[in-house]
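Researcher: Sequence recovery benchmark, item below. Answer with residues only.
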C-alpha cells in the first residue's frame, strides 16, 4: 500500500503534551483524555506505535471501528497500543488532532503523528494500515516490523496464480479462509483472484465498445469496470459504477453497488480516490 496521502502533515499537539501528574502507566484500558495524553499516548509512542481513534457514541460507524481496533490490538501481542478519544467528552484532544469527522485514526510514532484514515473500513483493510504503521515505526527504531508468515494454502494459491491457474488459487484461498476466517491477506488474495477470473476471458475492446453503446447493460458496465481496475484506472471504474447506482433501479442498482463495494476491497484505504468514491457513492444512494 502507498503511504497515507497526508503523511507528515503538521498536527499541533503542544497543548496536550504537558507532563501528566499521575503516572506513566496506562490509567485505563483505552480512554485518552487531556490529562493523560502526554503519558498514555505521546510518551508511550517512544517505545511502541500508538493508534489513536477519535470516535463518538453518536456515530455507530466509529464505534464499530473502535471495536475492530480493540480486537486487532488484543491479537497484536503488545506490538502497538490503542487509545480511544471520545470526541464528545474530549473535544480539546479531538481538536488538537485536527479531527474533522469520526471515526478518525492517527498513529503516534516516536511522538510524531501520522494521520491514517477518517472513515470506517473493513477489518482486513484496517489491519493492512496497522501493518504499515508497524513497518514505519520499525524503520525509526520503534518496535518490530510485522513478520510475514506464509500459510500452506497461501503458498499453494501463489504458485497457482504464477501458473495462471486461477480456479486452483481461488480454491486455496477459500480453504485458508475456512480455517482462518479473519485472515486479511487471504481475503485480499481471494478478491484479487476473483477479479482475475472475471476478466480472464474478456475482450477489452469488445467490452468497452458494448459498455459505451449499451449504457443500460449492467453486465457490460460491471465487466468494463473490472477491466478498468485491472488497467489501474480506478477513477474510471468507480465513476462508471457510481453512475450506474444513480441511474439504475432494483436488481441492477443493487448489482452495481455490490460490485463497487467489492472493488473497494482491492484498494489501499489511504488512497484518496477511494475516499472520493465512497463519498460519491453515499450521495448516489441517498
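Model:
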Amino acid at each position: 500500500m502507498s503511504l497515507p496521502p497526508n503523511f507528515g502533515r503538521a498536527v499541533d499537539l503542544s497543548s496536550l503534551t504537558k507532563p501528566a501528574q499521575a503516572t506513566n502507566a496506562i490509567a485505563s484500558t483505552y480512554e485518552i483524555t487531556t490529562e493523560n495524553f502526554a503519558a498514555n499516548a505521546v510518551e508511550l509512542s517512544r517505545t511502541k506505535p500508538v493508534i489513536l481513534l477519535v470516535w463518538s457514541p453518536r456515530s455507530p460507524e466509529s464505534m464499530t471501528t473502535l471495536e475492530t481496533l480493540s480486537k486487532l490490538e488484543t491479537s497484536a501481542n503488545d506490538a502497538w497500543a490503542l487509545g480511544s478519544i471520545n470526541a464528545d467528552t474530549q473535544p480539546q484532544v479531538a481538536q488538537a488532532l485536527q479531527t474533522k469527522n469520526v471515526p478518525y485514526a492517527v498513529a503516534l510514532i516516536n511522538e510524531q503523528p501520522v494521520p491514517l484514515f477518517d472513515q470506517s473500513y473493513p477489518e482486513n483493510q484496517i489491519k493492512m494500515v496497522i501493518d504499515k504503521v508497524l513497518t514505519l515505526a520499525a524503520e525509526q527504531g520503534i518496535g518490530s516490523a510485522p513478520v510475514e508468515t506464509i500459510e500452506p494454502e497461501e503458498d499453494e494459491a501463489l504458485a497457482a496464480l504464477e501458473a495462471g491457474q486461477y480456479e486452483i488459487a481461488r480454491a486455496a484461498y477459500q480453504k485458508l479462509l475456512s480455517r482462518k476466517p479473519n485472515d486479511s491477506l487471504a481475503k485480499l488474495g481471494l478478491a484479487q483472484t476473483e477479479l482475475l477470473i472475471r476478466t480472464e476471458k474478456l475482450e477489452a475492446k469488445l467490452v468497452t465498445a458494448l459498455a459505451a453503446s449499451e449504457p443500460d447493460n449492467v453486465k457490460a458496465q460491471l465487466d468494463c469496470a473490472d477491466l478498468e481496475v485491472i488497467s489501474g484506472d480506478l477513477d474510471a471504474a468507480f465513476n462508471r459504477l457510481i453512475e450506474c447506482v444513480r441511474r439504475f433501479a432494483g436488481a441492477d442498482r443493487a448489482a452495481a453497488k455490490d460490485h463497487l463495494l467489492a472493488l473497494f476491497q482491492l484498494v489501499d484505504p489511504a488512497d484518496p480516490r477511494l475516499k472520493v468514491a465512497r463519498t460519491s457513492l453515499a450521495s448516489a444512494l441517498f
